Amino acid sequence: KGIVKDIIHDPGRGAPLAKVAFRDPYRFKKRTELFIAAEGIHTGQFVYCGKKAQLNIGNVLPVGTMPEGTIVCCVEEKPGDRGKLARASGNYATVISHNPETKKTRVKLPSGSKKVISSANRAVVGVVAGGGRIDKPILKAGRAYHKYKAKRNCWPRVRGVAMNPVEHPFGGGNHQHIGKPSTIRRDAPAGRKVGLIAARRTGRLRGTKTVQEKEN
Predict the structure, then answer these.
(1) Which of 85, 94, 152, 194 is the most buried (most CB within 10 A)?
(2) In whole angstroms, what is the distance from residue 181 CA to residue 195 CA?
(3) Does residue 134 belong to any structural domain of this protein?
(4) What is the domain count for the chain?
(5) Which pLDDT does position 216 carry in this prediction?
(6) Over the stretch 21-73, which tens digit does the pLDDT of each residue have?
(7) What's the pLDDT score for residue 215?
(8) pTM for this model (two decimals)
(9) Strand intervals (E) in 56-168
(10) Is residue 9 located within the same domain as residue 82?
């Protein structure tokens, strides 16, 4: 049993973090842990962790003890890895089914894919807070600059055709054009490996979804 002391902003992450204070099981002192905050938790709230915990938002319990259809986040991939799946803001996974014989549970991940994990894996009940973050348009370059300054150096992105031929295989020319096929074989050397790498097909996706799936 822990108590939510504070909800803090983490630079470089869309979701807020919750500071939870637990009593140390071995020594007479307090331990603070950081959790990815589930939507709806507040400071002063009690958070329960373990097999016997109730199914309330913010509580941590093994996926095997949850009923089917439960919405969870920060799910462990292997038991004891402290949560690897469905951690971005507004994301959640859904418990689909249990198999008591093999002690496995199927969960549906935010990507839509389904994954079979051990029923002993723990998860936080609820949706990650900070949802709807990407609905607001960035609108100006300065905001993008500050966003990626906190994250990683991947902005601004210069196109290959806008470069000089010395800098990129697609560079140069009197107007911006690639000038060679943009598909490239898988075993090309590192400097040449740009464009559509080992593409199975190119061009517009035509036809209905079933036709597209058949082609893939």
Answers:
(1) 85
(2) 9
(3) no
(4) 2
(5) 63
(6) 998 888 888 999 999 999 999 999 999 999 999 999 999 999 999 999 999 99
(7) 67
(8) 0.82
(9) 60-62, 71-73, 93-99, 104-108, 114-118, 122-125
(10) yes
